[in-house]
């Protein structure tokens, strides 16, 4: 089998469907209007990770669909689209996931010492029970077959792609007045068992999703004195790596 032949892929169908003139698909790509640009930057700058500000009212299906369409518009390595979106509304399932979080969070807490541990204990790090909807976003490492264009030398690019989908959803949610909180404190296998996720599929994000009326004006971890935003100028290097103090 030639190395780029893709048994599970769509290459033959895609070739058959390829337009005679691909230039027909080139469309204007100038800058947005100032108002449109401001809206994009506003979504980026005011997006927050939400743990506690969720309203209980359910999200309409068409809104959820728009968020999922935004996620599904993300870039992906070799157009692999490795994501799936598991929607969880049932309180009973969310309660089981919260128990998995709680156990892992106790373990995490013990990894900090002294005052830092006490500070950690005061943080709220999830909204699993409060948010009316959870979305588990996964990465199917086998999608597109064994050889995926662009992923040949870095298999992690499938997960990077899935993270792009998460960020698209997060920004679209901000524009919709919907808060999103990413929960990563659990043993992946515990959540996989609850949702019946197969071995080759990775959990990338557990997102708590719900309407919000208020958001912090800066990261909650900064508000609560855990860690501040780093100065951008210290993170930008010209032409190559530069020495930087431990941050
Ligand atoms: C990969 C990833 C995992 C995260 N996991 C958690 C988590 O388990 N619990 C939590 O409270 N926040 C979690 N967060 C949110 C971060 O704490 C948050 O993004 C950061 O503090 C900056 O705040 P902001 O998102 O409001 O700007 C996670 C964020 C990312 C990107």
TrEMBL record:
<protein>
    <recommendedName>
        <fullName>5,6-dimethylbenzimidazole synthase</fullName>
        <ecNumber>1.13.11.79</ecNumber>
    </recommendedName>
</protein>
<dbReference type="InterPro" id="IPR029479">
    <property type="entry name" value="Nitroreductase"/>
</dbReference>
<comment type="similarity">
    <text>Belongs to the BluB family.</text>
</comment>
<dbReference type="GO" id="GO:0009236">
    <property type="term" value="P:cobalamin biosynthetic process"/>
</dbReference>
<dbReference type="GO" id="GO:0000166">
    <property type="term" value="F:nucleotide binding"/>
</dbReference>
<dbReference type="Pfam" id="PF00881">
    <property type="entry name" value="Nitroreductase"/>
</dbReference>
<feature type="domain" description="Nitroreductase">
    <location>
        <begin position="44"/>
        <end position="211"/>
    </location>
</feature>
<dbReference type="GO" id="GO:0016705">
    <property type="term" value="F:oxidoreductase activity, acting on paired donors, with incorporation or reduction of molecular oxygen"/>
</dbReference>
<keyword id="KW-0521">NADP</keyword>
<dbReference type="InterPro" id="IPR012825">
    <property type="entry name" value="BluB"/>
</dbReference>
<comment type="subunit">
    <text>Homooctamer.</text>
</comment>
<dbReference type="InterPro" id="IPR050627">
    <property type="entry name" value="Nitroreductase/BluB"/>
</dbReference>
<keyword id="KW-0560">Oxidoreductase</keyword>
<keyword id="KW-0520">NAD</keyword>
<keyword id="KW-0285">Flavoprotein</keyword>
<keyword id="KW-0169">Cobalamin biosynthesis</keyword>
<dbReference type="GO" id="GO:0102919">
    <property type="term" value="F:5,6-dimethylbenzimidazole synthase activity"/>
</dbReference>
<keyword id="KW-0547">Nucleotide-binding</keyword>
<keyword id="KW-0288">FMN</keyword>
<dbReference type="InterPro" id="IPR000415">
    <property type="entry name" value="Nitroreductase-like"/>
</dbReference>
């Amino acid at each position: 089998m030639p190395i780029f032949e893709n048994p599970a892929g769509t290459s033959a169908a895609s070739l058959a469907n390829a337009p005679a003139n691909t230039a027909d698909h080139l469309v204007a790509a100038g800058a947005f209007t100032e108002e449109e640009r401001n809206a994009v930057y506003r979504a980026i700058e005011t997006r927050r990770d939400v743990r506690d500000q969720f309203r209980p009212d359910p999200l309409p299906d068409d809104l959820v669909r728009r968020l999922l369409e935004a996620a599904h518009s993300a870039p992906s390595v070799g157009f692999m689209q490795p994501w799936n979106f598991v929607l969880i509304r049932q309180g009973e399932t969310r309660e089981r996931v919260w128990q998995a979080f709680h156990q892992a969070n106790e373990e995490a807490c013990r990894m900090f010492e002294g005052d830092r541990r006490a500070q950690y204990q005061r943080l709220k790090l999830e909204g699993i029970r409060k948010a009316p909807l959870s979305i588990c976003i996964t990465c199917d490492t086998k999608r597109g077959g064994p050889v995926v264009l662009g992923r040949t030398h870095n298999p992690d690019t499938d997960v990077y792609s899935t993270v792009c989908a998460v960020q698209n959803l997060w920004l679209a949610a901000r524009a919709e007045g919907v808060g999103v909180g990413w929960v990563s404190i659990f043993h992946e296998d515990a959540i996989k068992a609850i949702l019946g996720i197969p071995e080759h599929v990775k959990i990338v994000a557990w997102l708590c999703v719900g309407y919000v009326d208020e958001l912090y004006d800066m990261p909650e971890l900064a508000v609560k004195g855990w860690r501040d935003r780093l100065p951008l100028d210290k993170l930008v290097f010209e032409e190559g790596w530069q020495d930087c103090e431990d941050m």
